[in-house]
Amino acid sequence: MMIFMTEEELRRLYRKAPFKEYILDGNTRLTPGGRQFLLDHKISIVDSKERDFKKMQAYSLETQKKDEEALLNLQLDHQLLRANFLEKARTIYDYDQLLANQVFEWVSVLLAVEEKKGLTELPWSSNTNSELDQNIFSHQVDCSMNKDLALAPKGREATSLNVLYHMLRRFCHQYEHVLDEEQSIVLMKMLHHISRTMMSILGGSIC
């Protein structure tokens, strides 16, 4: 049902509670006198559809900005993670080239995950599931080093890997809702591989 707002009706509303804008919904029309009243009192005429469109547009822009910011943060954290792995690999290379080369391989894996290139060709992709791999997501390990382990033979190597392990674990937790399934699988398997490497270095189980 169409409603026509007259000058008298608008004047009555204005006396009751002065307003600076009048929202015109889809079922309301202004009479010439009503429109002139609003103009004389410098009251803005707002179309409800236009207002809703602008709100939706503003929300869309805000959402887009947040998405772009989240994507940038993910990219920067990817790069920071790779930089830390690369730094550890270079440090380890001075006293254990075999282990350093393993860390360099992990750097390549992180780059592949970041660029989403060649993931199915990696040794830890979803195409290479084993019985152990299938339990990887329920295997919430906590590789904890202590003073005795750090000072043990090969403790320096294990301590370096422990730092990388927890960096990667934090990254996986922080971006678990952003990473796709293939990326998550590769990173979780990489975590498991790092923990197994630490255990192998120390000759026992710390995880």
List keywords for this structure.
207 residues; mainly alpha; 2 domains; two-stranded parallel ribbon; two-stranded parallel sheet; 7 helices; 4 strands; 63% helix; rod-shaped
Can you characterise this structure?
This protein is mostly helical. It has two domains: 3-42, no CATH class; 70-202. It is 63% helix and 7% strand. It contains seven helices and four strands. The chain has helices at residues 7-16, 32-40, 48-93, 97-115, 147-151, 155-174, 181-202; strands spanning 3-5, 21-24, 28-30, 44-47. It has a two-stranded parallel ribbon. It comes from Maledivibacter halophilus.
What is shown here, in short?
The protein has 207 residues and is mainly α.
Globally, the shape reads rod-shaped
H/E order of the elements? EHEEHEHHHHH
* Structural category: mainly alpha
Distance between the termini: 72 Å
Domain tally:
2
Strand fraction: 5-15%
Point out poorly predicted stretches.
Answer: 131-141
Largest sheet at a glance?
Answer: 2 strands, parallel
Number of strands: 4
Strand order of the largest sheet: 1-3
Radius of gyration: 31 Å
Question: Percent of residues in helical segments?
Answer: 55-70%
- The residue-averaged pLDDT reads 82
Number of helices: 7
Protein name: Ethanolamine utilization cobalamin adenosyltransferase
Organism: Maledivibacter halophilus
